[in-house]
Design a protein that fits this description.
Blueprint: E1 2-11, E2 14-24, E3 29-33, H1 40-48, E4 55-60, E5 63-64, H2 67-70, E6 73-76, H3 88-98, H4 104-114, H5 127-139, E7 145-149, H6 157-172, E8 176-181, H7 184-190, E9 193-198, E10 201-207, H8 208-213, E11 215-219, E12 228-232, E13 237-241, H9 252-261
Parallel strand pairs: 3-8, 3-9, 6-7, 7-8
Antiparallel strand pairs: 1-2, 1-4, 4-5, 9-10, 11-13, 12-13
Helix pairs in contact: 4-5
């Protein structure tokens, strides 16, 4: 279990995170979904210990984030930080020395599957190939907790499907995945749990199935005073938070876009 409690972070006068809280269950796929610049990368860097929150705390298995906990975590950064003069193989050698749990068999299998030219300098890789390299490196650490920042960015549809399949398989082995995306469809495919984040604030967080159970899409004429309106979807329908048997169940896309379009933040459940 990972708990993010009331985390705030600023860079100078720029506010990146405001009172961010959510919990990540063990062996779950937790998806942070939000637009670019929402604060997804910043909160992930706080979770791995790369950034220190100005306020708030990160807990792993009820203990404050510490060196021992970090030994079981690996992160794939959105920037894909590389040493351009090094080859793919040389990057792998560095990573294998950093992680005692390094799974060389998995690494070789994935390199073969994606046909990455490991003898080439990474500076010669396409953007998509760099994404694949760092995804493979991260998964090959065999860490119990993976933090993946936009892991399918710049990938073609076939590679993207393969990466998502590998992530699902990794989680099914009892590992915990935290990933970020701005693609709603991708989030719905992957998530067991999620948090919707915008402008550094968590708007809503829940289990995927529970979120659908606890919302309805109703016609305007069905609206009642006690219903909590999230957003007007179009001229005829409204997304509301309720488990009353009215209207219809929303899709995850409707929930995510509804909160992202709402004017006010809604407290985490």
């Amino acid at each position: 279990m990972i708990e993010v409690k009331n985390v705030a972070k600023s860079f100078g006068t720029t506010i990146a995170l405001v009172d961010v809280s959510f919990s990540v269950a063990e062996s779950s796929v937790f998806v942070l979904i939000g637009p670019n610049g929402a604060g997804k990368t910043t909160v992930m860097r706080c979770m791995i210990g790369e950034l220190k929150p100005d306020k708030g705390s990160i807990f792993v298995n009820s203990s404050p984030l510490n060196i021992e906990a970090k030994k079981h975590m690996a992160m794939m950064l959105e920037e894909r930080q590389v040493f351009d003069k090094m080859t793919g193989s040389e990057h792998a050698k560095v990573w294998s020395m950093m992680y005692k749990s390094w799974n060389d068999s998995r690494f070789k299998d994935l390199v073969l599957h994606f046909r990455l030219p490991m003898d080439k300098r990474v500076s010669e890789y396409s953007i998509g190939m760099k994404t694949l390299l760092f995804f493979i490196l991260t998964v090959s650490t065999d860490s119990k907790i993976l933090i993946l920042d936009e892991p399918t960015q710049h990938l073609d549809p076939v590679w993207k499907d393969d990466v998502l399949s590998i992530i699902r398989s990794y989680a099914q082995c009892g590992n915990t995945i935290i990933l970020s995306t701005h693609q709603v469809e991708e989030a719905e495919l992957m998530a067991t749990h999620f948090a919707i984040i915008r402008s550094g604030r968590v708007l809503y967080s829940d289990e995927l199935d529970a979120a659908k159970e606890n919302h309805r899409v109703v016609r305007v004429e069905e609206m009642e005073e006690e219903l909590e309106q999230i957003t007007v979807m179009n001229n005829d329908t409204v997304l509301v938070k309720t488990n009353k048997e009215i209207g219809r169940y929303p899709t995850f896309r409707e929930i995510a876009l509804g909160y992202l379009r709402s004017k006010e933040s809604v407290l985490i459940q």
